[in-house]
Design a protein that fits this description.
Blueprint (H helix, E strand, L loop, with lengths): L25 H9 L7 H18 L6 E4 L4 H12 L4 E7 L5 H14 L2 E6 L2 H14 L6 H17 L4 E3 L4 H4 L13 H10 L13 H13 L6 E3 L9 H12 L12 H14 L5 H10 L5 H7 L8 H15 L3 H9 L12 H14 L1 H11 L1
Parallel strand pairs: 1-2, 1-4, 2-3, 4-5
Helix pairs in contact: 3-4, 3-10, 5-8, 11-14, 16-17
Length: 383
């Protein structure tokens, strides 16, 4: 196993990593190449936020300035704090898929109580969602979180249209999310993949599960690009402010009595078990490595501390592991024998099931060969 000399990424189950002659991985080199785009002086941060607010208000067409989701995690929670600092009027959406931790519920309540923002909790049909998750487990694909991520996006679009909100905020950010291997997830808009996996395993009626598809996502992207009709602007404000995870945690704790839950995305009990056990055991994937590597690059943790944090398995004792397994199996209604078979089955790719990857290939072909800007460049080079 080869490991980067700057971060803690290695070549275990990562088909996209490579190293230069100094032993530095491509993720670190990519960060160095792009970090200037996300690094600002205090004056630039102030200017960025002023321009952001103006951009939002200029497009406003309804009661609310923007819409965004909250999970109780660091990024989405700090985004609410930033919105409050900007004195904007958002509609907050919480997507409840049945796996909220008690800590996440408390964190969300503390934030909403203090900010006084209007919010909607979208509660999904538990039996339907539980069945879809079991299908994805039986399918042996890597991105079981595709279901939640897909439904969250569909829900945000639903309420954006209902309340005529033109701006969608995301807590996505370069500082703490850059450097995730491409083959550890799947495109979140792939409704064909979701439907086929469901059909091949539990085959339930998807009556309430919120959906959208890649074709419509691309239409929305083009509408935004060319400002056609009721287009939406999707913005990642954390990329405008020199975002630091540890600083965000300190602010949230001081201002909202917010409490950290241990690892990235562990505000969901399913995500915790998925990352700490299913990915770790079945797919030999340790997401703590890219999460901590991003913090190394962002100057928030030393490489030595990151290596120490990942030395032991995510569930450090057999007792903790057993309790987590028992809770998971009881909630998702699966026997231990069924679960052990799933763990022992060979991993499959999302491409092994019906999918809409061809749409992305067509889009890439357009960008490379048919995009007017690229065509003009090619013609110009010939002269």
């Amino acid at each position: 196993m080869k490991i980067c000399q700057k971060c803690i990424m290695d070549d275990q189950n990562d088909n996209y990593i490579h190293f230069d002659n100094q032993g530095t991985c491509n993720y670190c080199k990519d960060f160095e190449d792009k970090k200037k785009l996300y690094t600002f002086t205090n004056e630039q941060v102030k200017s960025n936020l002023e321009k952001l607010k103006k951009k939002i208000l200029n497009l406003k067409s309804g009661e609310y300035d923007l819409i965004t989701g909250i999970s109780g995690g660091v990024d989405s929670s700090y985004l609410l704090h930033l919105i409050k600092q900007l004195n904007l009027n958002p509609l907050i959406i919480h997507f409840d898929n049945g796996w909220n931790s008690e800590l996440a519920v408390t964190n969300i309540k503390n934030l909403l109580d203090k900010t006084k923002f209007d919010y909607i909790t979208e509660v999904i049909d538990w039996n339907e969602f539980k069945s879809l998750q079991r299908s994805f487990l039986k399918a042996s694909v890597v991105d079981i979180e595709l279901l939640t991520d897909h439904a969250i996006t569909a829900t945000l679009y639903k309420y954006a249209k209902k309340y005529k909100i033109r701006t969608i905020f995301s807590g996505g950010n370069f500082a703490t999310e850059q450097g995730m291997p491409k083959d550890w997830s799947w495109q979140k808009s792939d409704l064909i993949n979701i439907r086929d996996i469901n059909k091949k395993f539990e085959n339930i009626e998807m009556n309430t599960f919120p959906t959208f598809d890649t074709f419509n996502a691309i239409i929305e992207m083009f509408k935004a690009k060319f400002k056609l009709g009721d287009w939406y602007q999707k913005i990642e404000p954390l990329n405008l402010i020199n975002y630091k995870k540890n600083d965000a945690i300190n602010v949230l704790n001081k201002e909202y009595n917010w409490v950290y839950y241990g690892e990235k995305h562990y505000e969901s009990t399913f995500t915790e078990f998925y990352q700490a056990y299913i990915l770790y055991k079945k797919f030999k994937i340790d997401k703590r490595k890219p999460h901590n590597s991003s913090l190394i690059r962002n100057g928030e943790i030393s490489r030595e501390d990151a290596l120490e944090k990942t030395k032991l398995p995510p569930y450090k004792t057999n007792e903790i592991e057993r309790k987590k397994i028992d809770y998971f199996l009881k909630k998702i209604e699966m026997t231990n024998n069924e679960f052990q078979k799933i763990l022992s089955d060979a991993p499959k790719k999302h491409l092994d099931y019906r999918n809409d990857y061809f749409i992305f290939q067509l889009l890439q072909f357009y960008r490379k060969y048919l995009n007017p800007k690229n065509v003009i460049k090619k013609i110009w080079k010939r002269f």
